[in-house]
Amino acid sequence: KRIFKLGARAECLIHLGRLSDADRDLCEAETLLHLLPMARPVMRYVRGLHARACGNHEFALEVFTDSIALAREVDEIETELYAHMEACAILTHLGQFNEARTHIARGRAIATFDKTEALVNWRAGTLLARQEKPNAIAMLERWLPRGAGLAALFLLLSGAGVFGMVKGNHVEHFVGALS
Prior knowledge:
Layout: H1 2-15, H2 19-31, H3 40-53, H4 57-73, H5 77-94, H6 97-110, H7 114-130, H8 136-143, H9 149-159, H10 162-166, H11 168-178
Helix pairs in contact: 1-2, 1-3, 1-11, 2-3, 3-4, 3-5, 4-5, 5-6, 5-7, 6-7, 7-8, 7-9
């Protein structure tokens, strides 16, 4: 139980830009993984978020790839999907579009909820935009149905790092509650 609490707090700290504090929580959680191996996919995912926030793209890709493999082993589809989408975001940023499309394809295959479908569509639209495709905005508008509007908005804000800024006080409160 402590592992998940540390992981959740680390993720909040990452969104707040408190990367040293997040690293401390992740290091502690990683020392406890032998007690709860099923937490490995999620902890690797959060470690990937930390690496990405630190600008260490290569390490983040490696960690997200680990998270994907571990999540598949335990059939943890949501963690797998989120790790694919984070890897896709990095690859898109780096201009490795074919590799990014591979992650989008897998994400489409396993996305089962409006919010996860919205995330896959957002990453696909971002990929189109990064490739300077003229239809990127039209595709995003088509892919993000009104029913997924709130989920899409949340994903857009959180994916852009805005969520932590907009909801900073709430995230700080949550971090305090997890302490």
